[in-house]
């Protein structure tokens, strides 16, 4: 036990002192903060501010549309009105072609040939990618023309107002859903990142000892199992420290007054509960992936060789990404439940579901139980591969050789 | 009671036999040289002694007891290749390794400092290993093996990569430790060191023991049929019928004779022929010659068997 502690302590202290640890610890929360606030800020401020032109003979329609586009809730466009003529069309076309022109596009309204029929609306945009302007414009035309047609049916403006009042879906009871979803997504990525990073760090650290032959000195006093356990604990504690710092910072910022200013209504983007589960699932996820990585590290002789094998670690994680498509639309579906119980996916998917929906406690306990069993199994295999593999140099072991290592004790 | 006893150990790696039926014992308080050409199984044997690998058959005893990991605290080991953390500071590194051998941090730190002073590398203490020269790193490795004051010191090629001054310094240190009563086992190909310092040797080739015993006993098995002669003048005496081999060098020659008794005849012939003799020395073959001869013989035998 004492030896495991010594190995873990060394690993921890040496890693914590590196510059890269310091940089990652400081820079990543900064990026995260920018993403969290930036996105909620953007979400609250997305307004179309394009400059467009409306070409129509119908002056009332033109002014109504102008009013709708310039002063509505989510649009602050600048609208110019023209009456149709070939000269106007040419001038607008040439404006669209100007490199530094501000005109985003123009709407050409052709009145219907039959009285009472629908006019046709043609919109010519500078960029086909400017979907926001197009959508805003379409909504505005719809509202304005509906209103006009209702007026034509002799409804009073107050009646029209009451008829066309849009309803508001109140989601404040479950919090700001957009922000909550974004947070869940962010936590998913963060989990993927730290598990991958620290899993690989374990493998790298083993390879480093292998190439520098330090383990030969170490194995002359301690058992390979102690070395492996110390290494996983040491690297894992570094990861935990880093995650702890990040979570603390996120939590402080998320619950401070700044977030209230930009986040708007709803609860804080990250709750204590989420942080707790994140740390818990990080520990399990790290143990699963780092013990796999330890076996890979023991089998290979260099980082290059490790790169070739790390597909074995990446594939289950990629599978989790693919399963997001199942979990996001229906986090409580049977499929979502089953995949989030797969031990290799639990750290990512169960944790993701926990942020999105109410997960039954038995599911959490089951996932923890399954992960614990998996970790024990992987460690059993890894430590056997490790104790033999660490003394092998030169050639990469073949699969039958690895199976032989498992039997050797 | 021998401090290390290997009994008929055998180790086979997937395709190659590394050690075959090796039996040897090392007496306490001796300086023991393990010799053998490259790839002869020296490192494999040492690894089995310290339990890093397990022999396929045969037994290992340390300090008179069957091998047991708890005995490892009484052994200091220096591996063939340097094994140090590149980015770790020397003080921390030595303290860490000392603690792994059961020392407390304070004791480990103090001994590390004392040893660095003794080996004249005090300035290396605050540096990272990667900043040090190879020789310095080797000294650090050397210290790491000795910090916990082991009774048995096992060193796999301790002098490779050292300049003569530093090699001599480490050799002196080892001699000092032996005089304190420690047992030292080291492997090497440098015969001059072995010849001067070792009490006993074992020569292995192709995983088998070729020769073992005390230095004196081994030498006495060989006839005193070598002559070192330094002379000027007529060299016709070098072509006599009793001389099996002649190696000429400036101002003299090394001769291998058919029998011990021929030496006097050669000397008489040289004087009669008019050569001026500056030195004439009769001795047994050097360890290097024994080594080369025995290794050649071992390869020859196996080839004969295979053919």
Topology:
The complex is a heterodimer of chains A (409) and B (307).
Chain A lengths: L1 H15 L2 H27 L5 E5 L3 H13 L6 E5 L3 H12 L5 E8 L9 E6 L5 H22 L4 H8 L12 H35 L2 H6 L4 H31 L2 H7 L8 H28 L3 H7 L1 H17 L6 H8 L4 H11 L4 H29 L9 H9 L2
Parallel strand pairs in A: 1-2, 1-3
Antiparallel strand pairs in A: 3-4
Chain B lengths: L3 E10 L2 E11 L4 E5 L6 H8 L7 E6 L2 E2 L8 E4 L11 H11 L4 H14 L15 H13 L5 E5 L7 H16 L3 E6 L2 H7 L2 E6 L2 E7 H6 L5 E7 L10 E7 L2 E6 L4 H12 L2 E8 L3 H20 L1
Parallel strand pairs in B: 3-8, 3-9, 6-7, 7-8
Antiparallel strand pairs in B: 1-2, 1-4, 4-5, 9-10, 11-13, 11-14, 12-13
Helix pairs in contact in B: 2-3
Give your account of this protein's structure.
The complex is a heterodimer of chains A (about 400) and B (about 300). Chain A is mostly helical and about 400 residues long. Chain A has 17 helices and four strands. Chain A has a four-stranded mixed beta sheet with strand order 2-1-3-4, with helices on both faces. Chain A is elongated. Chain A starts with a helix and ends with a helix. Chain B is α/β, with parallel strands linked by helices and about 300 residues long. Chain B folds into two domains: about 5-215, 3-Layer(aba) Sandwich (Rossmann fold); about 225-285. Helix content of chain B is about 35%, strand content about 30%. Chain B has a six-stranded mixed beta sheet, sandwiched between helices. In chain B, helix 2 crosses helix 3. The radius of gyration of chain B is 23 Å and the shape is globular. Chains A and B meet through helix 1 and helix 8 of A and helix 2 of B.
Mean pLDDT of chain B: 86
Strand % of chain A is: 5-15%
pLDDT < 50 runs, ≥5 residues of chain A? 261-267
CATH superfamily of the largest domain in chain B: P-loop containing nucleotide triphosphate hydrolases
- Numbering strands along the chain, what is their spatial order in the largest sheet of chain A? 2-1-3-4
> Whole-Å distance between the termini of chain B?
42 Å
**CATH class call of the largest domain in chain B:** Alpha Beta
Low-confidence parts of chain B: none
Secondary-structure element order of chain B, N to C: EEEHEEEHHHEHEHEEHEEEHEH
How many domains of chain A? 2
